[in-house]
Amino acid sequence: MVFRVPSYYKNFRCIADKCPDNCCRGWEIDIDEDTLDYYKDLKGPMAEKIRTSISEDGSFVLNEEGWCPLLNEKGLCEVCLTLGEDSLSEVCTEYPRFTTEYPKTREKVLCLSCGEVGRIVFSDTEQIGFDEQILSEDYDEYEWEDGDDELAEKLESVRSHAIGLLQDRSRPIAERIAVYLNYCCQMQKELFETVPKEEEPEKISLYEAFLQRLSQYEELESIGDAWSGMEEELKAFYHEENYEKTHRAFMEAQMENEYQYEHLMVYYTFRYFMRAFYDNNLLEKAQFAVASFLMVRDMDVMVWMKNGQKFDLQDRIETTKVYAKEVEHSEENIEMLGESFLFEDVFSVKGLLAQIM
Questions:
Q1: Farthest CA pair distance, the chain
Q2: Is the pLDDT of residue 70 over 60?
Q3: Could you give the count of Cα atoms lying within 13 Å of 34 in the half-sphere of its Cβ?
Q4: Cβ proximity of 2 and 105 under 8 Å
Q5: Taking the mean position of all CA atoms in its chain, how far away is CA 50?
Q6: Region 275-299: what's the mean pLDDT?
Q7: Which range is most confident: 31-40, 77-86, 259-268?
Q8: What is the pLDDT of residues 154-170, one digit of tens each?
């Protein structure tokens, strides 16, 4: 089996109490069944404290401040410190790593909801590469059907070419993203013989398109206060007269940092593209990447303007982190966006192309 990761994967180490954020607060912390059984049978001074912290549905009950109740005064996990890393739930040991599997392949990616991951990804101006190795373990968890290997190989090839388009630095990033989206649309037709929505969307201003996009995001399950606050800030900051003007000024001022949007698009493409193996919808993965770029850019421009037209690495880390926490940590939210991509003109291929600028 092939094990594949982005080239920066090996550089990640949790910085624990040195982290300005904490991954054990603000969202539900699920406990897998094996770890739950382990906690039920656990003996010793930590046993009862752990069990009283678990809800009926098998997750940790957060305290009034939204923190895991098993953190000490430094924000470190008492379970890990007392019983060792092997005693943690799978979600605790894996985060910020996420796994995708398909025939003969396992891939892992580091999520941008972790600020340290963002620092590693966006500090490097070089193109993102990918490392792989052959694992000796048998891969028989699933019974794959005839033709699955061929489909997986085709999708890998399409993804590789799509990433190549995004990393073509002879073109400005907006042009690269447009070419990428058109290519994925064409491959959707060729591989799966499905025709995406091709009607010309109603001509609206970029500001109106922003409002329509944002209205769909407002329908999502709220994961934390940071995103809700960001939505309100965006609505209050933008208006018809300043939206396009500020975006064009920002893109011109940030030309030397276009590699950051390149990295962002490559991240979304690597993380989500191979889900098309299961649902035959690679175009949706490209729409997700482009819509995410547009929403992150909206946040970036606002922050840039509020900072006196300054935007540094920490700003880049924060905006992508806020977005990732809201969207990427909820399969329900990803599915709801998928529905919007099918039916809302603002997310159609032509609708998105008109907004890339």
A1: 66
A2: yes
A3: 6
A4: yes
A5: 31
A6: 97
A7: 259-268
A8: 999 999 999 999 999 99
- Residue 326 has a CB neighbour count (10 Å cut-off) of 24
Which pLDDT score is estimated for 345?
95
> Which pLDDT tens digit goes with each residue over 198-225?
778 889 999 999 999 999 999 998 877 7
Neighbouring-strand partners of residue 109: 98
Let me know: does 60 contact 70? Beta carbons within 8 Å. Answer: yes
**Closest Cα to residue 331, out of 87, 80, 98, 4?**
98
Measured between alpha carbons, how far is 26 from 225 in angstroms, rounded to an integer?
8
| φ, ψ of residue 116 in degrees (nearest 5) | -70, -35
How far, CA to CA in Å, does 268 sit from each of 27, 164, 274, 310, 330?
A: 22, 14, 11, 26, 15
Cα(230)–Cα(340) distance, integer angstroms:
21
Q: Distance of CA 319 to CAs 68, 83, 118, 171, Å?
A: 24, 35, 10, 25
| pTM for the full predicted model | 0.92
Residue type (1 letter), 318: E
Concatenated DSSP letters of 127-178: PP-EEEEE--S---SS-PPTTHHHHHHHHHHHHHHHHHHHT-TTS-HHHHHH
Q: What percent of the chain has pLDDT over 90?
A: 68
Distance CA 209, CA 215 (A): 10
Do residues 173 and 258 make contact, with C-beta atoms less than 8 angstroms apart? yes
Per-residue model confidence (pLDDT) at position 175: 98
Candidates 122, 111, 124, 126; CA nearest to 312 is: 122
**Tokens 């599997």, residue located:** 101
Distances (CA, A) of 322 to 5, 109, 163, 207, 222: 23, 18, 24, 22, 12
Alpha-carbon 243 to chain mean position = 25
Closest CA to 354 of 177, 144, 158: 177
CB neighbour class for 345 (10 Å; exposed up to 12, middle 13-18, buried from 19): middle
Smallest CA-to-CA distance from 112 within 298, 232, 260 is with 260
